[in-house]
Amino acid sequence: MDLNMGEDIVILVVYCLVLLFFGLVVQRRSRELEHSNQRLKAEVERREKVEAELRQLSDSLEQEVDQRTRELQDIQVALEREVKATELAKQRMTSIFESAPNGMLVVNKEGVITQANSMVASIFRCSAQELVGQSVESLVPQELREQHHHNRQEFQQQPSKRMMGARRDLYGVRFDGSRVPVEVGLHPVGLDGGAEIVAAVVDISERKAYEQRIHERNTALESSNRELQEFAFIASHDLREPLRKIISFSTLLQEGEYGEFTQEGNEFSGYIVSAAERMRDLLSDLLAYSRVTSKASPFKRVRLNSLLDEVLDDLQLMIEETGAEIHVADLPILAVDKVQFRQLFQNLIGNALKYHHPSRVPIIQIEDHSDEHYARIVVQDNGIGFDQAQAEHIFEVFRRLHTMHAFPGTGMGLAICRKIVQRHGGHIYAHSKEGEGTRMTIELVHEDGGRDDRSE
Predict the structure, then answer these.
(1) What is the domain extent for residue 82?
(2) Can you tell me the distance from the alpha carbon of 276 to that of 242, in angstroms, rounded to the nearest whole number?
(3) 339: left (phi over 0), alpha (psi -120 to 50) or beta
(4) Contact 445, 396 (CB under 8 A)
(5) Is the per-residue pLDDT at 443 higher than 90?
(6) pLDDT digits over 196-230, tens only?
(7) Membrane spanning segments where (predicted)?
(8) 195 and 216 in a common domain
(9) Of the residues 66, 98, 130, which one is the last residue of a structural domain?
(10) 89 and 108 inside one domain
C-alpha cells in the first residue's frame, strides 16, 4: 500500500512536471506567436502604408501625366497654329513678292539668285525659273562684273538699306544680250546662314527716253530763247534810232521852224510825237526785259538798305512831287544781282508813287519779314489798289489795268520785276484791295540756310 502510494506520488509529480513543462512550452510558444503576430501586424501596417503611398504616388503620377498630356496637346495646337500662320505668311509673302509692281530678286551670300518674280523676269526677258540659280553678276555688263562682285562683298560685310535712285546710270544685261537701264534698291535680310539681299529692280527705259526728249527740247528751247533775246535786243536797239529821228523832226515841225501847221496839222503831229514816244518807252522796257537774262551780272552780297538809298535818290523828284512818306526797316544782306535788284525796287516804289491815292499822302513801307528758310522783303503802300482777282495778271507782259490817259506806262514794269525775282530763284506776290493799297512780297530762299548777315 505504501508502495502504491509512493508510485502515485511519483506519477503525480511526473504529471505535474509534465504539465509544468507543457505549460512552459505553451507559454513560450504563445509568446513567440504573440511576437510573430506583432511583427506580422507591423508588416501589414507597413505594407498598408506603402500601398497608401503607392496609391498616392500613382494618383499624383496620373495627375502629372494628365497635366503633361494637356500641356502637350496645347503645345501641339499652338505649333499647328504657328505652322499654319507661317504657311499663310509664306503664301502672303510669296503673293506679295510675285505681285510686286517692281522686279524682285533674292540673292544669297554667294551671289546666287534664290528667288525671282515674274516682273524681274520680264525685265531680263526670261522666266523666273531661268533666273533662279544664276549668279547675279550674270545680269551685269561684262566690263563691270568684277567691280560689282567687289561691291557686293563690301555691301554684305556692312549691309544697309539703299533706296531707289541712290546710284544713277545702272544697266542690266538681258538674256538676249541687250542692255536695259535700271534702278536698283537693296534691302539686307539677316538669316542664320548669313545675310541675303532683296533687290528691287525697275526698268527705267521709258523714263530715260523721256528725259532724253526733255533734254533735247530744253536745249532747243534755250537756243530759241537766246535767239529771241538777241532778236529783242537787236530790234529794240535798232528801232530806237529811227524813232529818235521821228520824235526830233516832228518836234521841230511843231515848233514852227519850217512853217506853221494848221490846228488840225498840229493835232496830227502831236499824235505822231506821242505815239513815237510811247514806242520808244516800249522798246526801252522790252530791251530791259530781254537783258534780265542776256546781260545779267553775277550775284554778290549786297546791303539792301544801301541799295534802297540809291533808289530813293533816283526817285527824289517824284517823292517830292507826291509828298510821299517812305519808311525803310532794317533789311538783310543778300546775294543778288545789284543792278537788277536796283531796277526791281525802282519799279515797285515807282508804281507805289504813280498809283497813289489822290485824297491822302502816299505812305510806303519797306519791311523785312524773313524767317530761317526764306528772305521776304515787303513793299506796302496805301494807294488806289486793285481787284485781287488781277493779282497774277499784273505780272504779265504788256498787261495794264488802267488806260494810258489815266496812268502812263507800257505795262512792262511788273513783268520785269517777276523775271528778275525768278532769275534769283524766288517768287513775287501781290496782295491788294481797291481803295486801300497794295502789298508786294519778294520771297527768296536763303542761300546760307537762314543766317542773318545784318552785322556784316
Answers:
(1) 1-98
(2) 10
(3) alpha
(4) no
(5) yes
(6) 888 888 888 888 888 889 988 888 887 777 776 67
(7) 6-26
(8) no
(9) 98
(10) no
